[in-house]
Amino acid sequence: MDAEGILSLPLAWAEGKGNSADVIVSSRVRLARNLDRFPFVTRATPEERKSVAEAVREAIESEPLFRECTCCPVCELEALSRGLLVERRLMSPGFLKGCPERVLFIDAKGIVSVMVNEEDHLRIQVLLGGLALCEASRIASSIDRILTRLGFAFDSEFGFLTTCPTNVGTGLRASVMLHLPALKMSHAMPEIIAQSGRLGLVVRGAYGEGTTSAGSLYQVSNQVTLGLSPEELIEKVEAIASRLAEQEGRARDVLLKGQKTLEDRLWRAWGTLSHARRIGLSEAMECLSLVRMGQEAGLGAPFNKMPWGRLFLDIQPGHVQARTGRQLSEEETEVARAELIRNALAQL
Amino acid sequence: MDAEGILSLPLAWAEGKGNSADVIVSSRVRLARNLDRFPFVTRATPEERKSVAEAVREAIESEPLFRECTCCPVCELEALSRGLLVERRLMSPGFLKGCPERVLFIDAKGIVSVMVNEEDHLRIQVLLGGLALCEASRIASSIDRILTRLGFAFDSEFGFLTTCPTNVGTGLRASVMLHLPALKMSHAMPEIIAQSGRLGLVVRGAYGEGTTSAGSLYQVSNQVTLGLSPEELIEKVEAIASRLAEQEGRARDVLLKGQKTLEDRLWRAWGTLSHARRIGLSEAMECLSLVRMGQEAGLGAPFNKMPWGRLFLDIQPGHVQARTGRQLSEEETEVARAELIRNALAQL
After folding, report:
1. Cβ neighbours for B2, distance < 8 A, ≥ 6 positions apart
2. Of B102, B105, B112, B119, nearest to B40 (Cα)?
3. Is the ipTM of this complex over 0.85?
4. C-beta neighbour count of B277 within 10 angstroms
5. In angstroms, what CA-CA distances link A102 with A122, A163, A304, A314, B238?
6. Which of A264, A277, A335 minimises the CB distance to B278?
7. How far is it, in rounded angstroms, from Cα A20 to Cα A17?
8. Where are the domains of chain B?
């Protein structure tokens, strides 16, 4: 699949639609599965991994549900396309490096992707906009049921077996990406992160290392995959995501009430986005985060029609390069990013 | 004179016209004079200071040249007007505090002002746009000649006598205000300041304390008033001002050549000015300085028509309050300043 094809894929989660979309950007369910009759990816021979990929491809291609699915052997992907797929979260960054037998399947709606020979033989991922873990889980389960005839490694005591023990059991990771600028500004995140840990959940910056969170984007997901049913795990993550969305809403109200300073920050972010001639990724994400906050806070024009999700994606380095049509140096990327943002805002 | 009257005064130096106006904002000549028959201001009785003021008023009012001059006893000036006059550099900040017998004369063109009972009995000041020390000196001398019949304190050895010994001799201070953003960015100012000192000249930030220079505005003036003729002093200051203007021009060329980073800074300054909802004085001055640099560097629209000098004045706290028509808290001033700037830019 070439860069143009990937850019033209729909991207439900970037459209800013769905439940609680003012705070919740996207919901993701991921299942880790391995084929019983082959060794795990790290222990398998190239031949065995090739056989795994073949078996999965046959299973998928014979299934009417996957008719419009695209099969992408990672080795054949051009450099520009790889960056795009990671930034669109259709494959993991880790999937870029790995054995040559890696294959990615993507459905035509940009919702489902299946990574073959990542850490596990199969990683089935469903990604939707807003708070939609149940729906994502329903879709993931239906794919799981179809592929189960490949013969999954399963232990009656432990459940699904996986390369890394942290995935054993349900093999399920449910995660929600939230935009929490007000909680971050109010310095509430460290406490929230600590509390979540005690509940067996992980809250971390969705972009950036450690506790930093470029663009005030956070991800909440289940820590453990064992001991609870998939439904219970989903419910747990969904519950905390909803609670965080509520807290964020209250924090925004508090910050906006009578605070000229915050309004000023939001407008300055707009000023920077609409005028900078060169801008780095983290600053651009921070400004977009503030502009999104201004949009949700009802600051009106010009915030109204800001295509936040799409722009957020378009400023990622792989997207900037793909839109420019060639690989760029860091300075060139920053200049192109600034131009891309200015053009987008000028069209509003 | 009320605030409205002062705001309607023309202000040659703020119009950005004159020689080397791309770098040189204004030229000022100031003469210190004292009346022979009265003690210096600090030693005179209130009655004596009142007599000084009366004598000066008579001399000025009987002179056709001063027909359209306004006489303002400082005590009668309302608070809003005082700030305006200082910010327009028609009177010194020190003149705000002092004896009750202070009187200010301003000509209708906003070029000449005479302070009576400041540190000396008379401070005659001429302020013009661009590099125009000779012209300013010519005007100051003509006023000096007219007022000389008041009988100035003069010593054949020392020249004109003044309260502070640093003004003895010619009583002349020639100063030029320059906009030197590129020399400041290139960290060239400390060396320039040191060199000037060795030449008997002072270069210092025109606004802000010590070596800081809000808005990259610097003032160069003569240190000594003794031992050189007025013409020699003027020539000396004019020569260094011209040299600094040349150096600044070269530094701008170097900075702008191929440096996307500088262009970015200039545009971001525009973005801040056109979007901030609250802005402090020093940040606003810095942004205006950058925008002026962009204007001179030929960045084109929207920099083209920026009324830099006028806006620079309008953002000063006294002007912000006078335009709003009342005294404001610091936060209110910052909010009003941001609004005033946005409105000015929106009208371009």
Report:
1. B78, B81
2. B119
3. no
4. 19
5. 10, 16, 42, 26, 74
6. A264
7. 8
8. 3-251, 258-346
At position A67, the amino acid (one-letter code) is R
Instruction: State yes or no: pLDDT of B4 exceeds 90.
Output: no
Residue keyed to tokens 């989660």: A13
Residue A209 has pLDDT above 60, yes or no: no
Distances (CA, A) of B216 to A18, A178, B162, B182: 50, 43, 32, 9
Residues 6+ apart with CB under 8 A from B72: B1, B85, B103, B104, B105, B106
Residue B294 near residue B272 (C-beta atoms within 8 A): no
Question: B335 and chain A: CB distance < 8 Å anywhere?
Answer: yes
pTM of the model: 0.83
Question: Stretch A33-40: mean pLDDT, rounded?
Answer: 96
Interface of A with B in 252-311 (CB under 8 A): 260-261, 263-264, 267-268, 270-272, 274-279
Cβ distance B271 to A267 less than 8 Å, yes or no, reads: no
List, for residues B169-194, the tens digit of each pLDDT value: 999 999 999 999 999 999 999 999 99
Confidence of residue A208 (pLDDT cuts 50, 70, 90): low
- Total beta-carbon pairs less than 8 A apart between chain A and chain B: 53
- pLDDT at position A150 over 70: yes
Residues B298, B300, B302, B306: is their CA dihedral positive or negative?
positive
CATH class of the domain whose range is A3-251: alpha beta
Nearest beta carbon to residue A277 from set B264, B278, B279 = B264
CB contact under 8 A, A263 and B277: yes
> Hey, what amino acid is at A286?
E
Q: Which pair of tokens denotes residue B65?
A: 């040249």
Say which amino acid occupies B315.
I
Q: How many CA atoms lie within 13 A of B86 on its CB side?
A: 18
Half-sphere CA count of B110, side-chain side, radius 13 A: 18
Q: How far is B153 from chain A (nearest CA, A)?
A: 56
Which residue among A260, A274, A278 sits closest to B271, beta carbon to beta carbon? A274
Query: Which of A267, A274, A277 has its CB closest to that of B276?
Result: A267
Contact, A104 vs A74, CB < 8 A?
Answer: yes
